[in-house]
Write a structure and sequence with these properties.
The protein is α/β, with parallel strands linked by helices and about 375 residues long. Helices cover about 45% and strands about 20% of the residues. The longest helix has 21 residues, at about 220-240. The chain is globular and about 60 Å long. The chain starts with a strand and ends with a helix. Bound molecules: nicotinamide-adenine-dinucleotide. Nicotinamide-adenine-dinucleotide binds next to helix 2, helix 4, helix 5 and helix 6.
């Protein structure tokens, strides 16, 4: 099934398709997947950027898939992990693109999780002032979030995602079968972002997740396909309305204010992005209840779904001052205020600028 990311105004030409299916990336691939690739303009040669793990599991299958589509790959295999999203590996990618004389009309294919999507996308956005780019995600987090919407970038020792660009792929191909080998913790990590969409943007979807989380987390293909499809449709809809996060798109940051602080305080080790967002969503829901935007029942439902999904539900025991200092590094901070996304009952949201004094007092109360 196909979802269209329909950008408006001057970005209209950057609109693209997301194709979702099970077993669509294989050596005999035909039909829709080949059509989508062709429509994206992919032909001839492509630079495939992937990780050691993904290459070990799917390298041969992927090469055969490309051969069948008459694409000749130049494969760059990067180490696994967040530290790959760095200037060092970006520089390596540029070196290889230049060495292999890649031209503007040619393609980069990101084949991996969010780390690969972000760095490969940023390389595509900047090499020769922008060459074509395709996302073929292999983690749940990348399927439902990072491969869609065009945020690309790398980390800097001074902070995460500090260097980046909005740069849309020419298409996204999501094969649910890649999730067969994804470690359980990574699956749950991606599920946190799925909960996010339901909690603040689609109440019915949230109920579906409450009723089906066990089935989904035991990798039922129909369940996984449904949540990926719905998440991509929700994200595409938000991105269609606000590509560059001038307003509405910030709703996708639900759980991110405290979540990013948690990631910072753990030094981007120990805790994964989705896990930190799960903690952040609970915190944002507690604040929502405190300020009267949602009931205790709403807070409980969000907390219960997070807990039942095996995601962390307890706010780590850093001090309020440590949290505040980490939050001040956030891109969404202006003077003494931080822009929070709060839940307005399940499926609804409200933006609220919160004062650090209030957050400090609230943290003191709950920690
Ligand atoms: N651009 C965006 O809009 C956006 C949104 C959310 C997160 N992100 C970024 O995404 C990154 C996190 O992405 P992630 O959670 O996918 O992590 P990741 O890319 O590090 O992948 C997690 C691990 O799973 C392995 N893996 C990938 N696919 C596999 C498979 N099919 N089977 C077995 N192992 C597999 C990877 O090699 C890696 O070791 C962060 O850097 C975050 O900042 C970006």
């Amino acid at each position: 099934m196909k979802i269209r990311v329909d950008l408006s105004g001057s970005a209209k030409d950057n609109s693209y398709d997301i194709l979702i299916g099970s077993g669509i990336v294989n050596a005999e691939a035909a039909g829709e997947v080949i059509d989508v690739i062709k429509q994206a303009g992919l032909k001839g040669r492509a630079c495939v950027i992937t990780t050691e793990t993904v290459n070990g599991l799917y390298g041969r299958l992927f090469k055969n898939f490309l051969k069948n589509a008459r694409i000749e790959p130049v494969v760059l295999v990067l180490p696994d992990g967040e530290s790959t999203k760095s200037i060092k590996y970006l520089s390596y990618i540029y070196d290889e693109l230049i060495k292999n004389r890649f031209e503007r009309g040619e393609f980069i294919i990101a084949f991996g999780g969010g780390v690969i999507g972000d760095i490969a996308g940023y390389a595509a956005a900047t090499y020769l002032r922008g060459i074509n780019f395709i996302q073929i995600p292999t983690t749940l987090l990348a399927d439902v979030d990072s491969s869609v919407g065009g945020k690309t970038g790398i980390d800097h020792p001074g902070g995460k995602n500090l260097i980046g660009a909005f740069y849309q792929p020419k298409c996204v191909i999501i094969d649910v079968n890649f999730l067969d080998t994804l470690p359980e913790r990574e699956l749950k990590n991606g599920f946190a972002e799925v909960i996010k969409y339901g909690a603040v943007l689609d109440g019915e979807f949230f109920i579906y997740l409450e009723n089906n989380y066990e089935k989904i987390l035991s990798r039922d293909k129909d369940g996984l396909t449904h949540i990926i499809r719905r998440s991509c449709a929700i994200k595409a809809d938000v991105v269609n309305k606000d590509e560059k996060e001038a307003g509405l798109r910030s709703v996708l940051n639900f759980g991110h204010s405290l979540g990013h602080a948690v990631e910072t305080l753990y030094n981007y080790k120990t805790v994964k992005h989705g896990e930190a967002i799960a903690i952040g969503m609970i915190f944002a829901s507690m604040v929502s209840e405190d300020l009267g935007f949602c009931t205790g029942e709403t807070l409980n439902r969000i907390k219960t779904l997070i807990k039942n999904s095996g995601l962390p539900a307890k706010i780590p025991g850093f001090t309020p001052v440590e949290y505040i200092n980490a939050m001040k590094l956030d891109k969404k901070v202006e003077s003494r205020l931080i822009k929070f996304v709060l839940v307005k009952e399940i499926g609804g949201f409200v933006f609220k600028e919160l004062d650090f004094d209030y957050i400090h007092e609230f943290l003191k109360k709950i920690l």
